[in-house]
Design brief:
291 residues, Rossmann fold, alpha/beta, 10 strands, elongated, six-stranded mixed beta sheet
Length: 291
């Protein structure tokens, strides 16, 4: 954990902290005080009650609300253990969550956490401070999942229940699900729609290249990590490999379109590629968040 802290904090200091602050530097405006009107002040800021009592114009002064909560919702289901290279999907999710958490404390924000499979496995209420964030990172790295499946809908429902003020919610998952694809897709759209209405929801989609492209290695056995189902597949025919790639790309395209239709921003990350550049592009393109 100490090694991860050193690596991610350096990355935050050098590349992420400023972008994070510019995007999440204020969620609204709080009333501060009134002062006398000066030429150039907007007429709509005039406090007419004070103006009437004083006999001369006064305007309201506002300051940016600084209380912000970053809530990390991290999928730790069995499919996240897959990785065809040096890093598994769950390891990538943990590192990205750590970068976001350290960025938040640099911004004096609260950080909370949900770890989920097909149930809510661990919940850390939002708090501030380095010690708290180190606990969040430790929990992400060390928690041993009890379940193997995925229920993102349940996780988002809990987010809506436990967070009473608007927050920035990062949902980090590979978005794998079992059961009927059509039913699962509709349920996920409903859940992200409801969460995005209450909060500022951002989806981080974690993928591995072997989930998109099959190597030509003859007959292989593919096991679904969450259901245990095993399928034998002959990878030698080019048509088989091409169809596998087409189905994978179509699934990713549907997910992107569904998230976009619900007004949810998304970041796509792969285990075989550096994640810093996609995060930087996200912060750069997003500008000021919705309020």
């Amino acid at each position: 954990m100490r090694e991860l802290e050193i690596r991610t904090r350096r990355m935050v200091d050098d590349s992420i902290a400023g972008a994070y602050h510019s995007v999440f530097k204020g969620r609204g405006m709080d009333f501060d005080e009134v002062r006398e009107y000066s030429p150039g002040d907007e007429v709509r800021t005039i406090d007419w009650n004070v103006t009437a009592r004083a006999g001369r114009p006064f305007v309201k002064k506002f300051t940016e609300e600084r209380e912000l909560t970053l809530f990390l919702v991290v999928d730790i289901s069995a499919s996240g253990n897959f990785g065809s290279g040096a890093m598994a999907k769950r390891e990538l999710a943990a590192e990205v969550a750590s970068v976001l958490a350290f960025s938040a404390i640099r911004n004096s924000d609260k950080v909370g956490l949900i770890l989920y499979t097909d149930s809510i496995e661990h919940l850390v209420p939002p708090k501030k401070g380095r010690r708290h964030v180190l606990r969040v990172v430790r929990d992400i790295l060390s928690h041993e999942p009890q379940g193997v499946g995925t229920d993102t809908v349940k996780a988002l429902d809990v987010v809506n229940h436990v967070l009473h003020r608007r927050a920035v919610v990062f949902l980090i998952s590979d978005f794998e699900s079992s059961g009927d694809p059509g039913i699962a897709r509709a349920a996920l759209r409903r859940a992200v729609r409801q969460t995005n209405r209450r909060h500022d929801l951002i989806a981080v989609h974690v993928e591995d290249p072997r989930e998109q492209e099959l190597p030509n290695v003859g007959i292989i056995a593919l096991e679904d990590a969450e259901t245990g189902e095993i399928v034998q597949l002959d990878t030698a025919p080019a048509a088989v490999r091409r169809r596998f790639n087409e189905l994978s790309l179509e699934r990713s395209r549907r997910l992107r379109n569904d998230l976009r239709a619900e007004g949810v921003d998304a970041v796509q990350l792969r285990t075989d590629l550096p994640y810093l550049a996609p995060l930087q592009r996200f912060f750069k393109s997003r500008g000021r968040p919705r309020v």
